Amino acid sequence: MDQTLQAVLAATASFFVVSLILASILIICRGDPKRRRNERSALPARARNFALPEPNSAPDAALSSIAVDESATFDPSLNHVSMQELVDVTGNFSRDLIIGDGSFGLVYKARLNSGPVVAVKKLSPDAFQGLREFRAEMETLGKIRHPNIVKILGYCATGWDRVLIYEFIEKGSLDQWLYDTSSEEDCDDMGLRLPLSWHTRLKIVRGVAKGLAFMHSLETPIIHRDIKASNILLDENFEAHIADFGLARRIEGSHSHVSTQVAGTMGYMPPEYLGGATMATMMGDVYSFGVLMLETITGRRPSFPFHGEDGGEVRLMEWINKMVDQNRYMEMVDSSISKDDLKESIVAEVFKIGIKCADEKCKVRPAMKEVVDNLDKILA
């Protein structure tokens, strides 16, 4: 046989052999379609019906399984709560039941089958790391019990869904009370919102300070990283409860947490974060608290510019520093507050605490325990 023809036949045979091998490997990897349908039918119904995200769209996919179906409660008075129950009592997470927009998810008001009214936060699919990290974080926060920190009652996880269950706080957020962000029709559960008095505002501020001091003094401290008016909830007695731990972090060893991105809300973030610092610290929380404290007693948003005396735009901290230089403390107090019984010396002392907390130099800021002590003396 001609050598050229032999070479062609040999090459053709080799091609078919290689193609056959590759086809066999592909069939093995894909598996039998009937078997795969049977495996899918074994998944929980809600997991089957949930639309899977595109590849790599869910963070840390290796730790998050579509077959996951679990829940946990941290309060002995709360019965086991399933994802199906949460779907039922929220009307499949109806927009009509939304009461807040926390970091990484919407918050719904719902009454569980066992009776208690709770706040249910459904996290966005990209708002968590993996199931193990999510579970560990929730179990840690679930053990925290303090009068000025919202209780996490439990969680549910099904497929890519992650839902947190919190105690329901009756009077909504401090932000709503300072700025009346809802209409009268939306205030049925709380009644007509009246301006907060000076004493009530200091009580709220002291409650936030106590909650932060507790978090910072834990054996493994927790930093919140997003202290702001909308994350402070008020109960029927206007006691403050720190909420929304979506950005909270435990800090080991040194009192800092390495972060690859800026966390927080504009106006409340300390200048070192905006300057590119990647170390989130307790002093960052102190700064945010200082801004919150000054916002509460002035009734001015820290993130919104307003017109100064010269007609130009000015922001809260810049305006406060100018007014302090002129000893104009009483003029900074929210105009809705009655000043009849206010002592200027007390007002000045309160402003000085807030200004010290919100100092641009983090080393100047006091620890939260010191802030609590100073506020206790003023309110004594």
Give a quick rundown of the structure.
Its EC number is 2.7.11.1. It is an enzyme of class 2 (transferase). The chain has helices at 3-30, 33-41, 45-49, 83-89, 131-142, 174-179, 198-217, 271-274, 282-298, 316-325, 329-332, 344-357, 368-379, and strands spanning 69-73, 98-102, 105-111, 117-123, 152-158, 161-167, 222-223, 232-234, 240-242, 249-250, 256-258, 279-281, 306-307, 313-314.
**Ranges with pLDDT <50 over ≥5 residues?**
31-66, 183-190
Quantity of strands, as a count: 14
Percent helix, as a range, is 25-40%
The H-level CATH homologous superfamily of the largest domain, spelled out, is: Transferase(Phosphotransferase) domain 1
The CATH architecture of the largest domain is Orthogonal Bundle
Per the CATH scheme, the topology name of the largest domain is Transferase(Phosphotransferase), domain 1
How many helices? The count is 13
Q: What is the global morphology?
A: globular
Q: What is the averaged pLDDT score?
A: 80
Distance between the ends: 111 Å
How many discrete domains?
2
Q: What is the strand arrangement across the widest sheet? A: 1-5-6-4-3-2
What series of H and E elements makes up the topology? HHHEHEEEHEEHHEEEEEHEHEEHHHH
Report on the biggest sheet. Answer: 6 strands, antiparallel
Radius of gyration: 28 Å
Assign the CATH class of the largest domain.
Mainly Alpha
Proportion in β-strands? 15-25%
Please identify the structural class as seen in this structure. alpha+beta
